[in-house]
Design goal:
Blueprint: E1 4-16, E2 19-25, E3 36-41, H1 48-63, E4 81-92, E5 95-109, E6 126-140, E7 145-153, H2 163-169, H3 177-189, H4 198-207, H5 211-227, E8 228-231, H6 233-240, E9 243-252, E10 255-264, E11 269-272, H7 276-293, E12 297-308, E13 314-324, E14 327-330, H8 336-353, E15 358-361, H9 370-383, E16 387-391, H10 397-400, E17 406-409, E18 417-418, H11 429-439, H12 452-465
Parallel strand pairs: 3-16, 3-17, 8-15, 15-16
Antiparallel strand pairs: 1-2, 1-4, 4-5, 5-6, 6-7, 9-10, 11-13, 12-13, 13-14, 17-18
Helix pairs in contact: 1-5, 7-8
Length: 468
């Protein structure tokens, strides 16, 4: 086991998309497992994707990167700002940290593309500002215990409070406060986190001499940059457009590679020359599992030779091939389901083996045979080590994995996420869920009923409007 790992313990979402309030605890309270799995189920438009989007926004923050402008439209239309709160557990050797990180986002005008002082109404653009960041923690080791306290609280007109932590974190920094305030303002204008911005992280590392504080900051930064992966619906769209988005974390001896590759499937893909061996190693690694999931199928990489780009850089042209029954065909002719499996298989392998990895996947079931989906999740839940968060419409996993791994959305925007109660050991959770849809036995309704007669009437009226 790695000497350090970070895991998400809970998420609280407020006024984000169609979630006015939602709290989701990731702990399986029924039974202890090494792995952490949360499968979120519910009807369309009930807040499943909002959970994945919140985790994606967390990644942007922890990486100190600018969040895309699209998040300006994710704030609930009835509110001025949204707030996301995350609780983490970090284990480092014999030290245990409970860490809380929260921030708010608000919608502001984006003046970056304005010409002069003119702003054409039809071209009005918005972006988000990340503000009111708070980072708190508790610490426990065999030598010391620290109760919950704020490490950095930016909810102040100054740089941040508490003053005592400010002095300890920036002890040797000889800078004007105005320069730090400018850094804070610049991060907000660029839709970045102030705490985890490159500028502040460099200052903390240069100045702070307290190891506990640096462990927290570096631990979350490493988690965001190298250990947290999000597969959203855009991933699925790229596959539909005949491209293979390949997210990976690959470690060999003393080297490690983390990143994303987008390989076109309808033509040879051009990749940097230094990446050719990495791609081959990743594919070879995936093939070990792939041929067990789809008997007899492996993926091959054909090296078509060097290529010089317009910028004068040397790359390599490669073609992905599907190898089955001793016959090779271009991988583009495989089914969408096979492409989906291959695109996420390396990350699932890492989740199975590495406790420090968190992978969040929206619509995991899309394109994957339901029986195989259930078996995959059962294997990972029983033997895995990392953290897997997913949304799904396919109910097969409700029959194959522990009931404590499953959560549901509700129809109440003020209490979006719940765990089923009164579920007996011998209950089939799939049948239990169906029964609750009909009878509504939980504290919150999980489904807004539809009327078959009204739906049929609506179809008929719509047809009449088109002269059918």
């Amino acid at each position: 086991m790695n000497s350090q790992f970070v895991r998400i313990e809970s998420i609280t979402i407020e006024n984000f998309k169609n979630v006015r309030k939602g709290v989701l605890d990731f702990e399986n309270r029924r039974k202890k497992y090494r792995t952490s799995i949360v499968g979120l189920y519910g009807q369309n438009g009930s807040g499943k994707t909002a959970l994945i989007d919140a985790i994606q926004l967390l990644k942007y923050s922890l990486c100190g990167k600018s969040a895309p402008n699209k998040y300006a439209d994710y704030i609930n239309v009835e509110k001025d700002f949204a707030t996301l709160k995350f609780q983490f557990k970090m284990q480092k050797a014999e030290e245990t940290y409970d860490i809380w990180y929260q921030f708010s986002i608000k919608k502001v005008l984006d003046y970056s593309d304005m010409e002069g002082d003119a702003l054409v109404e039809s071209e009005t653009r918005y972006k988000i500002q990340i503000f009111d960041e708070v980072l708190s923690f508790t610490y426990l080791s065999d030598k010391e215990k620290i109760r919950k306290s704020a490490l950095i609280d930016t909810r102040t007109a100054g740089v941040f409070v508490p003053k005592s932590k400010y002095n300890e974190l920036l002890k040797n920094i000889d800078e004007d406060v105005m320069e730090l305030l400018l850094t804070k303002r610049l991060a907000q204008e660029q839709s970045r986190s102030f705490i985890f911005s490159r500028e502040m992280m460099n200052r903390f590392r240069k100045s702070c001499e307290i190891e506990i504080y640096l462990n927290i900051l570096n631990g979350l930064s490493t988690f965001g940059n190298r250990e947290l992966f999000i597969i959203d619906t855009q991933h699925e769209g790229l596959i539909n457009m005949n491209a293979l988005p390949l997210a990976f974390k690959y470690k060999e001896k003393n080297s490690e590679a983390v990143g994303n590759l987008l390989l076109p499937l309808n033509k040879p893909a051009s990749i940097p020359e230094k990446a050719i061996e990495l791609v081959k190693n990743i594919i070879d690694n995936m093939n070990i599992v792939l041929q067990q999931l789809v008997p007899g199928l492996t993926i091959g990489v054909v090296d078509l030779g060097p290529e010089v780009s317009k910028e004068g850089k040397i790359g390599r042209l490669i073609q992905l091939m599907s190898l089955k029954n001793e016959k090779a065909i271009p991988f583009q002719y495989e089914s969408e389901g096979i492409k989906k499996i291959v695109s996420i298989l390396q990350l699932l392998t890492v989740v199975y083996n590495n406790p420090s990895i968190t992978v969040a996947i929206d619509e995991l079931d899309s394109g994957i045979f339901e029986y195989l989906l259930g078996e995959l999740l059962n294997i990972i839940s029983e033997k895995g080590k990392g953290q897997l968060i997913f949304t799904s419409h396919n109910l097969r996993p409700l029959e194959t994995i522990d009931k404590g791994f499953i959560a549901f959305t509700t129809t109440n925007p003020d209490n979006r996420y719940i765990r089923m109660t009164n579920v007996k050991v011998n209950n089939n959770l799939r049948d239990f869920y169906y029964r609750d849809i009909v009878l509504g036995e939980q504290s919150e309704p999980v489904y807004s009923p539809t009327n078959n007669y009204e739906i049929a009437l609506a179809f008929r009226e719509a047809g009449e409007a088109f002269g059918s």
